[in-house]
Amino acid sequence: MLIKKRNQSHVRSKCRAFCKKFYNPIGFLLLFFSVNVHCATPEQIKLIQEAAEHHVLDTADKPVGSEVEAQASDIDPRVYATQCPEPLKTSSSSHNGSASYITVLVTCEPDDWKIYVPVKLTLTVPLVTASSPLTRGQVITSQNISISMVNLLLFKRQGFSSTEMVEGAKLKRNVSLGDVITANDICFVCRNETVMIRAQSAGMSITTKGTALSDGILGEQIKVKNDKSNRIIDAKVSGIGEVMVQF
């Protein structure tokens, strides 16, 4: 009887070992498939990224003549996502085209899931750049400038969108080849130089000479001394070496 019980115990031990060896892999596989059944496929991830990119391209504020590129960040392949039966919906709290990143919310309403996708922006705008090295005091001509596409996110200073806006201006500092011409680089009216003061009223125009008391670019208001009366007046730069006042 004792021998029989020992044999039965031995058989049960072998059975438990066999079941443990057999069921552990099956349990792992069941767990694996239950966890991964709703993980996003590579195709779904691509669709989510494309939806986020199109949202940014369609909604980001863009200056006239600019070009925008959008690149969605990588998405964790373990993220929960199904094959949405409807077109994905997108939204974002920012439309700032000069931001480095815009976070887009991509949602599938029928299957009740959503994913936040950061999208990197590259915004380039046409700006006047030096087509040859320029030196201080040099007058800008159409031969030494050109229009180039410049990354606005890397260039924060005030530039010019057309060559006509800077032609004839004088440089206040050296400018290297390829550099953007900025408002701080030039003057249409330069300090201590003689300017033509044009005073206009309805049906009447008077001109006289004066001395600029500061540098100015087109459309900027500066102080000018009337050489004839020695009065200091406020005048708007209207051209190369010319200012205008209203009376």
Number of helices: 2
Give the helix/strand class: alpha+beta
Strand content: 25-35%
The helix content is: 10-25%
Strands, count: 12
Unreliable stretches covering 5 or more consecutive residues: 1-36
Q: Main beta sheet, described?
A: 5 strands, antiparallel
Average of pLDDT: 83
Domain SAF: 125-187
Pfam family, one: ChapFlgA
Signal peptide: 1-39
Subcellular location: Periplasm
Describe this structure in a few short sentences:
With 247 residues, the protein is an alpha+beta fold.
Description:
This protein is of the alpha+beta class. It folds into three domains: 42-123, no CATH class; 125-187, Alpha-Beta Complex (Type Iii Antifreeze Protein Isoform Hplc 12), CATH 3.90.1210.10; 194-246, SH3 type barrels (Roll), CATH 2.30.30.760. It is 21% helix and 33% strand. It is built from two helices and twelve strands; from the N terminus they run ααββββββββββββ. The strands form three sheets. Strands 1, 2, 3, 4 and 5 form a five-stranded antiparallel β-sheet that branches. It has a five-stranded mixed beta barrel with strand order 8-9-10-11-12. A hairpin with an 8-residue loop joins strand 9 (204-212) and strand 10. The longest helix is centred in the N-terminal third of the chain and has 35 residues, at 2-36. It is elongated. The termini are far apart. The relative contact order is 0.09. Involved in the assembly process of the P-ring formation. It may associate with FlgF on the rod constituting a structure essential for the P-ring assembly or may act as a modulator protein for the P-ring assembly. Keywords: Bacterial flagellum biogenesis, Cell projection, Cilium, Flagellum, Periplasm, Signal.
